[in-house]
Amino acid sequence: MKIKGTLMRLYILIISLVIFLSGCQSYITYQITKPPEKVLPKEFESSIALSGAQTHYCSSEIDCLDFRVISPKDIDNYLLSGNTLTLTLISKRSTEDDTFEYQLNADNLPSKSNDGLLIIFPGYGVNSLVYTMQARWLSHITGKNVIVMPASNQYDEFKYGLNSLDLLVKYINEHQYTDISLLSYSMGAVASIDLTTKLNINKHILFAPMINFEAALRTIAKLSYPVYSKLLGDDYINEVAAKVIEKSKVALNKLDILSNLNKTPHARQTYIFSSNADKVSPYNGLLTLSNPKVSIYEVKDLNHLEMVSLISAQQRNVLLSLLDG
Question: In angstroms, how far apart are the furthest CA atoms of the chain?
């Protein structure tokens, strides 16, 4: 009887553990796919100087898209009146901080008007307002209008940023943009690559593209929660990734970044920046690319966060040369 009772308790324990782990997977999936709470000050949200004009574009009462539009014309009068705007971004590192600082003034206004458009697709887990500082800098330097799209987890439904791309295409066509370039970070590559199949893109520039969602999720789990990820194991994290993909209802081929990049790109030129020290989007993962129309730039010693913050002067200088060329 004791053996039977022990086996029964063991059976109940196993069943309870299975139920707990299953519920844990659902909880993790929910945490990944839920929209984030706003964490930035309202002053930043409403600042045209920094964040540009909030655009609410609709094709119907229910089919709408919210994004930011940054134009050099936003602050022309402000700068021509003798004012300056200083953009500062600091990245904390273990040894020393990296700082990006640029001052906008009347002396460095764009030398000529530019009817081009640059679209930024942020990575996962950020508020896209963070990227409006980069957008303001790029707009001022290039003279282009810049659209900052929501991050992939800022929509009501998580679809890897593929939400409402047809609406974006309609907006661009209505404004008759012809010289269009794309700039994506990490998971933003999913949407930017998909957009190249819908529009004629001049230049497509990707920073640390998320080439494999499952591998990226495993790496982030190990970096952020080493004890829990080791306890749960890779297979468990893979199952969580499968649940996220299933919930998103996004076709697997849309997430196959390498396969899509190996196809003849719809962009006239495609460039990828990748770091040897980036464990989330590793440079080695791109070595199977065999498309001669895709150029890869290896960046030294930057982790994933540093790659997507555009903090490196090397990155910024090459980016500007590509956009200007």
Answer: 91
